[in-house]
Design brief:
By secondary structure, this protein is of the alpha/beta class. The protein has a single domain, classed as TIM Barrel. It contains eleven helices and 16 strands. The strands form five sheets. The protein has an eight-stranded parallel β-barrel with strand order 1-2-5-8-9-12-13-16, surrounded by five helices. Strands 3-4 form a two-stranded antiparallel sheet. Strands 6-7 form a two-stranded antiparallel ribbon. It starts with a helix and ends with a helix.
Length: 302
């Protein structure tokens, strides 16, 4: 895919201006049944053209949960929070989580507080009934040196405190740089995991993105047991689209990721949200792809 999600998030952001042992405490934040959903970025072009019809198609496939990737000027895919919630309700859909990049500019260091823009983000997420407000990107400016990076993790924790006031938690979603970039000899991912409070900050593990950095989900899950209450379920094959990454996403079960083994381990260690995401399609339409992915998940018992 020539325009990867990495590029999408960078452009969107610019346009908008030690291992923890497994314990029941880590699982206390999301007291909900296990769920399967789809990240709507998987059908981003369809959502851009006709979001209502696209959501209807998703519901007809049998999905009950969606995760957004479009929140601009206090609107989800062009609709205000209350209006969008009614659209989802009418279709029998819920939105337990959503992706909005928390940028450095959302934190006012002088006031030791978040800007209104981020507070509105949290408020609107609560209206939609989200359980997790997820930032799917970490600005390059806060990962130039170890001290700045570690200090910014306190902003993550404070975002968790802000979300907690509305009955939610803050979350972070990885790409690949977290496993390839190091500061003071520590990988970015380790700095995040070791300096965020799991009671406030959820980790959404994208099991496909990391593969482009040579990291493997099973190893990471064993290193940090119980930390991944949400997961992007994804498979990968050798890239066919000429993009900058060696691997691209594909239909579940046909690539190089041991997806079922990973999600089974997740289920045993506290993962509650299994969110399907596919960004490349190898000749299929995005709708055909997420339909097939959902059927495979059901076949696997999810």
């Amino acid at each position: 895919m020539k325009n990867s999600r990495r590029d999408f998030l960078k452009k969107s952001s610019m346009a908008l201006a030690g291992a923890t042992l497994f314990s029941t405490d880590l699982l206390a934040g999301i007291n909900t049944p296990e769920l399967v959903g789809v990240q709507l970025y998987s059908i981003r072009d369809d959502m851009k053209i006709n979001p209502l019809n696209s959501l209807k198609n998703v519901a007809e496939m049998g999905y009950k949960n969606v995760e957004h990737a479009n929140y601009i000027d206090r609107k989800f895919y062009g609709y205000g929070a209350k209006e969008f919630k009614k659209i989802l309700d009418d279709l029998g859909l819920k939105m337990p989580s959503g992706h909005t990049v928390m940028r450095k500019e959302h934190w006012d260091a002088a006031k030791n507080d978040f800007t209104d823009t981020w507070k509105w983000t949290v408020d609107d997420a609560a209206i939609l009934g989200q359980q997790i407000v997820i930032s799917p990107w970490l600005d390059e400016s806060v990962r130039q040196n170890y001290d700045d990076m570690k200090r910014y993790m306190e902003v993550f924790n404070k975002s968790g405190e802000l979300c907690k006031k509305s009955g939610m938690r803050f979350g972070y979603h990885n790409h690949d740089f977290e496993f390839s970039q190091e500061l003071n000899g520590k990988k970015i991912f380790d700095i995040i995991l070791q300096n965020t409070d799991p009671k406030l900050v959820v980790q959404q593990l994208d099991i496909g993105n990391m593969y482009n950095a040579g990291a493997k989900a099973l190893d990471i899950m064993k290193q940090y047991p119980g930390r991944f209450e949400s997961m992007h379920v994804k498979d990968e094959i050798k890239a066919t689209d000429g993009g900058h990454s060696p691997y691209e996403s594909t239909i579940l079960g046909v690539g190089v990721i041991p997806v079922k083994e990973i999600i089974d381990l997740g289920r045993k260690s506290g993962t509650k949200h299994f969110i399907i995401e596919q960004e490349s399609y190898q000749g299929k339409t995005p709708m055909e792809s997420i339909d097939q992915d959902f059927k495979i998940m059901k076949k696997w018992g999810y």
